[in-house]
Design goal:
Helices cover 0% and strands 20% of the residues. By secondary structure, it is an all-beta fold.
Length: 174
């Protein structure tokens, strides 16, 4: 587990952090509200990133996600205003509610081939997101999933898509 020990780092001005190899779970809110954190490297032993783990890390620009990762909980990177791109590991099947909400500088998302669900408000407020290539495995897009993605010009929807939630593309003006 990772979280309890991290409280001692809360008041330090951490800019770059490499998580110890051997860790399997990053607990809920473990790194939340660290305004100076700009880069995180997560080792290939981590399987789960908890709810809001990096919530409101407003200067987080670079995150290296390992192939071992199978679960990313709701709001894990919500409010990471400086995050510009993310490459999701191949074994992620579900993007939780608000996982990248309000990541206003996010322009590039590489989605895993096994992804089957995009949760409610997953990319809400990602105003710089310009295009999205959705894998054919996606069957559901949640409510408000892409609301306020003002620059979204191109999206390739899954051939297997069965549900597009309420207001999923509200205010996608481009």
């Amino acid at each position: 587990y990772f979280g309890i020990r991290f409280f001692s780092l809360r008041n330090k001005k951490i800019i770059k952090y490499t998580i110890e190899k051997g860790l399997e779970i990053i607990c809920d809110n473990a790194f939340c509200n660290l305004p100076n954190l700009a880069e995180v490297t997560i080792p290939d032993t981590v399987k789960v990133i908890g709810i809001g783990a990096f919530l409101n890390c407003v200067n987080l620009r670079k995150v290296t996600l390992p192939d071992s990762l199978v679960v990313m909980m709701d709001g894990a990177f919500s409010g990471c205003l400086s995050l510009q791109s993310i490459s999701l590991p191949e074994h992620i099947k579900r993007l939780g509610a608000g996982i990248f909400a309000e990541c206003s500088k996010l322009t590039d998302v590489i989605m895993p081939k096994e992804l089957n669900m995009i949760g409610d408000s997953a990319f809400r407020g990602c105003g710089s997101l310009k295009q999205l290539d959705m894998p054919d495995s996606v069957v559901s897009i949640g409510d408000y999933a892409f609301t306020d993605c003002f620059d979204l010009k191109e999206i390739r929807l899954s051939k297997e898509l069965r549900r597009i939630g309420n207001s999923a593309f509200l205010n996608c003006l481009s």
